[in-house]
Amino acid sequence: MSSLTTIEVNKEDMKFSAAHFTIFSGTERERLHGHNFRVSMSISSPANRNGLAFSYKILKDKIRALCDELDEYTLLPAKSPYLAIVEQGSQYQASFNGETLVFLKSDCKLLPIPNTTVEAFADYLLQRFLHDDDFVSRHDIAQVEMKVSSGPGQWGSCIWREGI
Length: 164
Ligand SMILES: Nc1nc2c(c(=O)[nH]1)N=C([C@H](O)[C@H](O)COP(=O)(O)OP(=O)(O)OP(=O)(O)O)CN2
What we know:
The protein is of the alpha+beta class. It has 3 helices and 10 strands. The two termini are 22 Å apart. The structure holds the ligand Nc1nc2c(c(=O)[nH]1)N=C([C@H](O)[C@H](O)COP(=O)(O)OP(=O)(O)OP(=O)(O)O)CN2.
């Protein structure tokens, strides 16, 4: 009977401090605020006779690099159905429900996500991990789970599974 082993990395420094606001509907959103978001990744692969799936240092380096890209920015959803963002010189002007929010572009990161929620961040980071290099194809990977937390006791996650 074959078995799967799982490596999980969620070091203390796998985090990004960012401002955001969750959009609940076309008329309801939060005020701008921030979190120290934590990131955890788990990778499952078939147990092998060498008892080593892969060196998890690769994973730690990759997650830290992805967190650094998001750290200390205001994160905005470029694919929100409710927020229209336009560039005006050094600013982003984001229109929501008849109001316009103005941000310095240099303080912001626009992400290709529909909302700045933990589940959307998990999906974004998972896609970056899967597509930035060929780690999954180079290793016999069965499943990758990416998790993002906005605070103790609350996580969102996204899973890639071979064959789905
Ligand atoms: N499905 C989701 N729901 C909510 C998200 C999310 O990312 N996905 N995020 C939020 C807000 O960003 C909010 O800041 C966090 O929610 P909240 O319950 O206020 O949590 P706190 O960090 O303030 O912790 P508490 O101590 O429990 O208040 C809301 N919903």
